[in-house]
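Internal tracking record. Fields below are filled automatically when a chain is submitted to the structure queue. Please do not edit lines marked as system-generated. If the sequence contains nonstandard residues, flag them in the REMARKS field before resubmitting.
Queue: standard
Priority: normal
Entity type: single polypeptide chain
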Amino acid sequence: MSFFGGLISTVFERRYRGASSVDAAGRTIPELAQDLLGSHGEVSGGTLARLILDRYAAMTAEEKRGFFEFMTHGLEIDAKAVTDTLQTYRDEPSKRSYRAFAAACEPKRQELIRRLNQVPGATARLVAMREDLLKLLRAHPALEPLDVDFQHLFSSWFNRGFLVLRPINWGSPADILEKIIAYEAVHTIDSWDDLRRRLQPGDRRCFGFFHLAMAGEPLIFVEVALTKGIPNSVQDLLAGGRDAIEAEEADTAVFYSISNCQAGLAGISFGNSLIKQVAADLSRDLPSVKYFVTLSPIPGLNKWLATADLPAATADNQRALAAHYLLEAKRGDGMPVDPVARFHLGNGAALHAVHAGADVSENGMAQSGGAMVNYLYDLSQITSNHEHFVTDKTVVASSEVRALSATIETKP
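SYSTEM-GENERATED OUTPUT FOLLOWS
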C-alpha cells in the first residue's frame, strides 16, 4: 500500500475503533480489507468478505463514511505506476506490457468490491452499500471516484444478459407483491384491493427484471394496461369500477407506470431494455395489439412554467403549454429538461399526444396541473428515432403536438 493509502488507513483506524469496526482479533476494517486483497484461498477469502460485510452492516453512518474515505483514498490507483506502465507499453507493446498497464489503471477498491461479492447474498449487500454512498455524495464530493467504480462494476454485473424478465401477477409470491406495493413510484398502490385491480384482470399485465443474485428482489417493473384505443386519463385506467375487456380485444398496450426498485442501482439503465422486451413479447403473444404507448407524467412542467415568460396556465391552454414545454424546454446540452421525456425519447419513442386533466391526484396536480403525455413506441421506428435524438437532439413528435406548441406565443 502507498504511503498516502497507509496514512488514510491509519486515520480511519484511529477514528473508528468502535466495536462495530473491529473483529475479535482486533483487526479494523482497513486491515481486514488488506487481508482480503492479499488472500488467495477461496475459503479464507469468503470468510474475510463475510466478516467485512457483517462489520459494515453494524457501522454507524459516520463509520460508514470513514470506510468510504478509506476505499476512496487508501485503495486509489498509483498515478506513477499508470504513467510508467503506459510508457513501457508504448515502447514495447505486448500482452505482458498491456496487462501491466491495465492492472495499474484499476484501483484496488474495484478488486475489493469483487472479492466482497464472493459470498452468498453479497450482491444485494453491495447494492445497499452503494445506496449509503449515494446519500453522502452531495455533502462529500471527494467520494465520487468510489461511486464511479461501483457504477462501473454494477454496469457489468447487471447488464441485460444477466437479467431475467418475469411476469408478476396476483398469483406471484406474497413477498414479491409486497415489494410491488412498496416500490411503486408513479401511482401509489394504496391497498391490496388496488394491487389486485392492477394485476388480476385479463387486460392487465406487470413485468419485472430480476437478477439471479437477487432473485427475490425486482430491479424494475412496468405495469401495463391493455385497451381499445390510446387512453387519455390515468383515472380511467385505474378506476375501481371499470369494465375489463378480454386481452384479445385490445389493440393498444399502455405502459402507465415504470418503477425502479433499487436505489443503489441508480444510473444503471434497465427501463430501455424492459419496455422493448415487453413490447416484443406482447406483440408476439397478442397479435391484435398494434400500438405501444405510455401514459406518462410531466414532472417538470409546473416548475418550468413558474419561471418561463409564458401565458398563465388555464383550462384552455394547458395542453398547448405542456406541448411547448416538451418540445422547447432544453438543458444546456440541448436535451429536454423533463427527465421522463429524456428517458422515453432516448429509448426511441415519439411524442404522440398531450392530455389535460389526465392525472388529478395531488401529485399529478402539483407536478403538471394534471397534464400527461403519450409516448409512442413504434417498433419499426425505435432505432431511427433514437439515432435522431442522441445525434441531433431531435424530438420526434406528432403533427398534433407540434401544432399545439405553435399556438403558444413567446415574447421576444
